[in-house]
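The pair is set out directly below:
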Amino acid sequence: MAEPDTIVLLRRAAPDTADIDRSDLSFRREPELGIAKLRLWGRTADARFHEVAGIAAPNVRTAVDHGGLSFAWLAPGEWLVTGPETAVADWVAAAMATGADDVLAIDYSHARAAFLVAGTNVRAALAAHCPLDLWPDAFPVGAVARSLFGDTGLFIARLADAEGAPRFRIIVDQTMAAYAARLFARA
């Protein structure tokens, strides 16, 4: 297994975006959210997930919370880990310290931008640029997906409602953060 180069430090650049706070739509940056990807190889990836994460693997298109972190299913053998930035970094270091050849955990906090979007108009704002059905029957609390948002890739998670309005977390490539904000500003 390759050893990480400890001399190279990657820094998170603040996305060049402004929060949007209207009566029907809120779009807020999550600058301290840690984001990592866990990849496990082999036919028993879900069982191996339990060994690595300490919990049962989330079901397809869902997320589970454990120990202050959220583990979201992305694809067979692949999960997104989110939480406080230092907790995610510590978790990634611990996962990689096992030295197992079937485990790859990568901290993407420096490469992604996360936003909380909420409000009575949030589904319409998302639907204008995202092909997913985000109504509660098709996308309940705890559901996750990868999709397109305009011309960029998107990870989306349905969170618990806030103040009686739906709430989502979206994650895009850091270079596309300003683009995502512009799409929401025009919604």
About this structure: Residues 20-185 form a domain with the Gyrase A; domain 2 fold (CATH 3.30.1360.120).
